[in-house]
Specification:
With about 170 residues, this protein is α+β, with helices and mostly antiparallel strands. The chain has 2 domains: about 60 residues, no CATH class; about 90 residues, Sandwich (Immunoglobulin-like), CATH 2.60.40. About 20% of the residues lie in helices and about 40% in strands. The strands form 3 sheets. A 4-stranded antiparallel beta sheet has the order 1-2-3-4. The protein is elongated, with a radius of gyration of 30 Å.
């Protein structure tokens, strides 16, 4: 029983290796985002951003490869989230709240940011933030301790940017 098992494994490996040796990247795949690179000791043909296999070869080697990469660095989308490209002022959470809520906002460049809380009569009842801020995403707390239940408006101003969010205080 064991010899048949090992014979099947060896046969499968031979079948797979011969199929891999016959693999060729069609020109249509290369034309859709891949290319050829040549150096003094090798030629590389492959694809960019696709799972197709490319081939590198030189006088002493032949390798099948997948995605291209550069050792030492990896390009990811993390940097895009760390520094916003535009202002953003999120809705307070939770809303309705009692007596505290969180406000998130984004600042794309260094500058003064002012966040104030207004009642329905338009009177400023609290200054939540008034300072120079670094670029990035920030969170501040709205503390409505001592205020009456009702509708309030939170306004963020920074440079030419200004937005208002409605908050409901329920006690």
């Amino acid at each position: 029983m064991r010899p048949l098992f090992w014979l099947a494994v060896v046969g499968a490996l031979l079948l797979v290796s011969s199929a891999a040796a016959d693999f060729v990247v069609p020109q249509s795949v290369i034309g859709a985002g891949g290319g050829t690179m040549a150096g003094p000791s090798n030629i590389m043909t492959g694809t960019v951003g696709q799972a197709a296999i490319g081939v590198t070869s030189g006088p002493s080697n032949i390798h099948e490869i997948g995605f291209w990469y550069q050792p030492g660095w990896i390009l990811t989308g993390v940097g895009d989230e760390m520094f916003p490209t535009e202002y953003w002022f999120g809705q307070g959470y939770p809303n309705p709240f009692n007596p505290r809520a969180q406000l998130r906002f984004a600042v794309p460049s260094e500058g003064r940011v002012r966040v104030s809380l207004y009642n329905v009569a338009g009177q400023e009842v609290r200054i939540l933030l008034d300072e120079e801020m670094e670029p990035g995403f920030h969170t501040i707390e709205v503390d409505a301790e001592g205020l009456a239940s009702g509708v309030y408006f939170c306004r963020m101003v920074s440079g030419a940017f200004a937005e208002i969010r409605k908050l409901v205080l329920l006690k």
